[in-house]
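Our preliminary data section would be incomplete without showing what the modeling component actually yields. Below, a chain of 477 amino acids is followed by its predicted structure, encoded as tokens that our downstream tools consume directly.
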Amino acid sequence: MNIADLTIKKTHELLVKREFSVCELIEHFIREADEKKDLNAYLEIFHDINKQVEIAQKMFDEGKATMLTGIPFAMKDNILIQGKVASASSKMLENYTATYDASVVKKLREAGAVFIGRTNMDEFAMGSSTENSAFGVTKNPYDTARVPGGSSGGSAVAVAAGMALGALGTDTGGSIRQPAAFCGVVGLKPTYGSVSRSGIIAMASSLDQAGPFAKIVEDAEIIFNAIKGYDPMDSTSYPDNLSKREVKRPKVIGVPVDFVRAKGIDPRVLENFERSIDTMKEQGYEIKEISLPSLAHGLSVYYILMPAEVSSNLARFDGVRYGYHRDGENLLDDYMRSRGEGFGREARRRILLGTYVLSSGYYDAYYGRACSVREMLKKDFIKAFENVDIIATPTTPTPAFKIKEKSSDPLQMYLADIFTVPINIAGVPALSVPDGFVDEDGVKLPVGMQFVAPHFHEEALFTIGKDFEKIRINKIR
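Predicted structure:
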């Protein structure tokens, strides 16, 4: 079995032909995961999965298998799997066992997918490097001295290193797309409200969105089609009749040139991006330079709105009802010690910042103004999509950086999200597709191309993503 050549569709076909059993497939991936523990992608590998394997094999035997039946999945540690620990990579929840399945887990179970482990992440999804985990940093499989990106770094590495065929992550400001770019895999951030957030530990509720990692665009499409759809358990979930859109084949790509060429982008990443855009033009796509002036404010808006919601969502972890508890001299001391020791440095930083921008006297100056700019950014995207079908940018301004390189400078770390955070603010879908490599210290490091579409136009993303993959393959040949 050649792991490198397996995709979800190809694996399904081989399982149907009985080239191997579900048990043999899963055992192979678990061995891979065990052998590559030094990458620290998995916090826990599930060895007690006989029941899942039996159910999947029975679906094949009875002719009821779906495209995802028997497929080994890695799940980010903030997605609840009944009976399994869901710690969000935090000391605060290190002993919390989920009492129910997240909605996305239920849908994958119904499809017959097999969950082989929970993956490392930045604590409560706060970070761009997976260095903020209470359980150690995950390492990039292309260079173990570098980060895999974050916050869904473990899920990206699990797919990139052949330890799973599919994975789920969550994307609040680029937490799927950025690690996908750093690890050379495909990552999709769906339209806000198209995938249920029920059973997913919240970071920033108006920005969080679950989505897939995969080797190729077709696999990401298969996973997305399995997990999407209305869920009455999620008040932000869109009814299916409202989310249906007539999607035409994309022909016009818009490039926000001023934003893409902004100060701070690695010249090699920019050169690679412009070369790829020229290649797409040669293949028949029309390229238009567009202006999205509000994108320049995206990072500032994000780092006001996101901490404000973090402050609210994490207030529940008080050491009283559940989670980490430390005895103090009195009730207030209990509370202060539990939160002070249970949360890591980055989580505490964002809680403090969020509490500040929501406090009396500062609410209008910061949070209120950020909400206004958010609406302006949404309108700019809507206006831009009147003239173009897709917007393209690099996924990240640099290739993967070294472990500890930016951990002492939060502002530099936040700049790693400059191309991804506006997408979450606007709620539109975006896809990161591998876009070649750049040389760094004698190592070839992956970079990504980000395609952005109007709300509920994921189909257009998959179409252009598949075209782009073919263009890249032909270019290599």
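Residues 122 and 130 are 4 Å apart (CA to CA). The chain has a mean pLDDT of 95. Preliminary results of this kind motivate Aim 1 of the renewal.
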